[in-house]
Automatic annotation (TrEMBL):
Gene3D superfamilies in UniProt: DNA methylase specificity domains (3.90.220.20)
Species in which this protein is naturally found: Helicobacter aurati
Record GO terms (molecular function): DNA binding
Protein name: Type I restriction modification DNA specificity domain-containing protein
Type I restriction modification DNA specificity domain boundaries: 15-164
Amino acid sequence: MKGLIMNKNLESMRWGEFVVGEIFDFAMRGKRLIERDRVKGNIPYYSASKESNGLTDMIANPLFIAKNKLIISTFCDCYYVEGEFTASDEITIFGNDKLNKHNGLFIARIVKSNASKYAFGYKAFSERLMKQIIMLPIDSKGEPNYKFMESFMRKLEQKHLQKILAYYTHKLESIGGGADFLFVALKLALIILNPLVILSVAKNLAPLVILRKHEVRPKNPMRCFATLNMTKITFVILKSCEARLKNPITKNPYPINLKATISQPSLRVA
């Protein structure tokens, strides 16, 4: 029922055509930093990779820093990145003073719907993206309705959060959890709602990957990210206590003490 209501909300809105280059007052192409020249650090470096929403590396020597912007790859993959980041020349970065995490997610889905227009022989370079026409909900003045887009995505976010919370509560209880696990499940759900979470964690936490159907060790425990889509939920936590993974989770799990810089949730507009 909620899904039907949300779709009706979209259908009842007035929509208008906009040229991408005209709705953003900030636009720039990223700068390439080849792998051998990168220094490991804590600033996300994005490229045209299809994995991890384009996150390629974490570096300490960016050629520039952007913050709270939309990124569009040469294959027209589009994401909103919250916080500071940098990007390669395969990425075009857009922004304006009305853009935020939630309306940015809405616009990202609209932009990405044009991906079929681009291919290896016709990539979505900056000059083409600037001329790309997209449809957006409009307000009474015929301008992009940023408030509606934000409200819509907030409601959609809550809908997904409820599903994730229910899933993790059930999963934790099924492997020996109890009342204490509701708190743990809520923490996990709040984090995993976002496909990319750069975590700063306590040193005593073990690397952990939770999939929908089974648990596996991360191949690269130093790459810390989370992914949410229709078939898989992945959550990776950093560092040490390998032995803990060999034992069943008890009713008194070690505390999860972390800070998160959240990027792009993988939520559908329709």
